[in-house]
Amino acid sequence: MAKLTILAASLAVFLVIIANTSAYRTTITTVEIDEDDSRQSKCRAQVQMQDLNQCEQFLKRAIQGQGYLTLERDSNRPDQPHLQQCCQQLRQLDDKCQCEGIFEVIREQQGELEGQEMQKMSQAASNLPAMCGLRARRCKIKSSEWF
Fold first, then answer.
1. pLDDT value at position 139?
2. CA dist 131 → 31, 54, 79, 93 (Å)
3. Does the N-terminal or the C-terminal CB of the chain have fewer CB atoms within 10 Å?
4. What spatial distance separates the first Cα and last Cα of the chain, rounded to whole Å?
5. What stretches of 24-138 show up as alpha helix (H) in DSSP?
6. What sequence ranges are listed for the domain Bifunctional inhibitor/plant lipid transfer protein/seed storage helical (predicted)?
């Protein structure tokens, strides 16, 4: 009889443990963060905070024929002051955000410029990193995106 009582008590304890265990369920949710998306939004925020007006001025002068679109560094260039200040503005952005900054300058000109002017600006802009001696030597800017 004592064995039966111990068995019944053990069974009751076991049932209570099972009931309590099943009452508490843990749900784990994993969220994958796309590194490119987070970097891109970080870059957008950085670019919005950074004034890139000298890059805009340099690129506008370049398409108007008042600047050189060559990669050579020459202190006698008429566009040299704008180029130097543009480079300084770009260096204030993270290395991985500099092309995004250049792209934003072009995007802002989209309503003002047409066809060949936009194409010329895109070409000049893609070379800006090399002209400035930045880590990214060239930005991939497709002029076809603007037409």
1. 87
2. 41, 14, 12, 16
3. N
4. 93
5. 35-49, 53-63, 80-91, 98-109, 115-132
6. 55-139
113 in a structural domain: yes
Residue 106 CB burial class (10 angstroms; 0-12, 13-18, ≥19): buried
Per the structure, the complete domain to which residue 113 belongs is given by 36-67+78-145
Separation between Cα atoms, residue 127 and residue 83, nearest integer Å = 12
Closest Cα to residue 89, out of 131, 55, 44? 55
Phi-psi region of 73 (alpha: psi -120 to 50; beta: other; left: phi over 0): beta
Per-residue pLDDT at 101: 94
Handedness of CA 121, 122, 126, 127 (dihedral sign): negative
Distance, in Å, from the CA atom of 82 to the CA atom of 17, rounded to the nearest integer, reads 76
How is residue 111 written in tokens? 């309503």
* Stretches in the chain below the pLDDT threshold 70: 1, 4, 7-8, 11-16, 18-37, 66-79, 142-147
pTM of the entire predicted model: 0.65
Residue 120 lies in a domain: yes
CA distances from 11 to 3, 18, 29, 102 (A): 12, 11, 35, 73
Q: How many domains does the chain have?
A: 1
